[in-house]
Every structure is written in C-alpha cells, then in structure tokens.
Amino acid sequence: MTADGVRRLVYTTNFGGYEQINDDQAESPSVRFLCYTDMPDLRSDRWEIRLVKPAFPLDAVRSQRIFKIRGDEALDGYDEILYIDNCISLRTDVSALFDEWLATADIAFMLHSFRRDVAAEFAEIVRTGLDDAQRVFEQFDHYAATQPEVLGLRPLSTGFFARRPTPEVKAALTRWLDHVLRYSRRDQLSVRAAFHDAGVSVNEVEIDNHMSRWHVWPVDVRRNTTVRFASGSLRYPDLLKVAALQTQLEDAQRVAAQVEAAQAEIEQLKDACSVGAKQLAEARSELSDLRRSRSWRITAPLRVVAAALHAGRHESGPA
C-alpha cells in the first residue's frame, strides 16, 4: 500500500508446465506480487503462489487467459493492478509506472512497436502457426464485416497492462475474454475490437516492446514449445473418427429399420391384396355357377318384372 493508501498489485500467470517461473523482478516494497498457477509444485522466491483450477484441463492457453484478463477474487480490494507476462522482467519499482500510466486513463497498454496494424498481426499469427488458421480467418472476416476500422489501427501489446478495476474497465475486459474464448487464443488479435466501442479511455503507451526503463522482454524462462503448440490441439483424433463412424452407423441402422418396416407393410398389403383377389375370384365363380343353375333360369321372368316395377317407381317418384 502506498503512503496515500492506494493498494497496488502486480500479477502473472504460469500454466501447464509451459515455462519456469521468472523471479527476476525488481523490488517494489509497497506492491503485492501474485502468481496464478495450476501447478501444485510451483515455488517462487518473488511471487506469492495462488493455486487455481484450470477452466479447460486440455487447453492451458485459454485457461491462462481467463486469469490473465479477468483474474479472480484475489484482485478484489486493489485500486491499481498490473498484469505482466511471465517472460517479462521489471527493471525498477513499479510504483512510478502506476503513477505515470494511470495518470490520464483507467487502463493502459503498450502500443505494438514493430507491427503496423492489427491486420498485419493477423497475418503474422497465420504465418507462424500460433493458432488454427481457420479460426483466425473467421475472426478476421467477422471484424472486417462489423468493425473494419479496427483492422487498420496500431496493435496493442498485451504482455503487460495496468488498470483500475472500474465497472467500465471490468466490462471491457469481460468482452475481451469473450473474444478470446470465441475466436483465437492470441489475445492481441481481439483487444482492439473489445475496447474500441467499450466507452473506456485507453492510455496507449509508446515504448519499445522489448526494452524500456520499466521492463525487459523476453527473458529466458526455458519454454517448452511442445506444450505451447499442443495446448488446445486435437489430442485424440482417432476417438473423433470413431465417434463420427458410430454416428454414421447409427444413421445407417435407422435407415435400414425404416426400410425393413416399409418392406413389412408392403408384404402386408400384398397379403391383403392376395386375399381380396381370392375372395373376388370365389365370388365370380359363385355368380357364374348361379347363372348356370336351373333356379336362375326359372326365376328369369320374375327378375324382369321386378326390374320393370323398380324402373316405374323411379320414374314416378314418391307418392
């Protein structure tokens, strides 16, 4: 806590065994240092370790992004908060950074110092294969249709950013996280879009992203790139194929059952038609026998009289 009672916190994240924790941070006596991690054995001489449960056990990157962008209740009660990537080292007491970066706005990001616009950042992510190309293309297409002006802006570097947790800032951060969970996990692609219409003033700090009086980036944290590229990828493609084939088999079985039922109905109709034809043949045979019989011939005059009487009644109508 500062002399005037402002509570300040710096936090980082370390998920999935991707890299070693970076303890090379300058002393800031009035600032708390907190590290979110999903690794029970992680230890640090500089950071207070906060063990958390990843939201997505097989996607360490997006699980990390939740705590990077939103944090949790451990951030409650702090007036000013700074997030830094684990591969960034602070070179000096960050109190002056808080004073300067948050002097004119409630949130501050570095401007990207070596990428001309957001569209170029999209192209770089596709080129380097840091995320699924189809997902990145979809995100670009959606932004081009709904927020085309965002693609022409200078990118914001998201390696570290300072903020005051006002309701407006929290709402914008929530929107940013929504984009990361819906689109690419590379959060620098969505931060401009999330803040563009959020009604939040952003202090865009113009410094070299690699080195400034505040920081150095990147530092060696012995990254495991296998974990980086595997996180969120399809780990069990054969199971997906089995599930797809099972669905196809079930569909085929349903069709076969429908065909079998239709064939049974056809056989029933055939049987009914066969019985009807047999009954018709028997009736015709009986009629033929009747017409050849002696009684038929004897009663012929009576049938003529009956027919004449019937015709007369039909012509004269009812009495």
Keywords:
single chain; 319 residues; alpha/beta; seven-stranded mixed beta sheet; 10 helices; rod-shaped
Q: Could you outline the blueprint of secondary structure elements for this entry?
A:
Blueprint: E1 8-14, E2 31-37, E3 48-51, H1 60-69, E4 80-84, E5 89-90, H2 95-101, E6 107-111, H3 118-128, H4 133-146, E7 156-163, H5 167-182, H6 191-196, E8 202-205, E9 215-216, H7 225-230, H8 237-292, H9 294-298, H10 300-316
Parallel strand pairs: 1-2, 1-4, 2-3, 6-8
Antiparallel strand pairs: 4-7, 5-9, 6-7
Helix pairs in contact: 1-5, 3-4
Task: Write up this protein.
The chain is of the alpha/beta class and about 325 residues long. The protein is built from 10 helices and 9 strands. The protein has helices spanning about 60-70, 95-100, 120-130, 135-145, 165-180, 190-195, 225-230, 235-290, 295-300, 300-315; strands at about 10-15, 30-35, 50, 80-85, 90, 105-110, 155-165, 200-205, 215. The strands form 2 sheets. A 7-stranded mixed β-sheet has the order 3-2-1-4-7-6-8, sandwiched between helices. It has a two-stranded antiparallel ribbon with strand order 5-9. Helix 1 runs antiparallel to helix 5 and helix 3 packs antiparallel against helix 4 (about 135-145). The protein is rod-shaped and about 135 Å long.
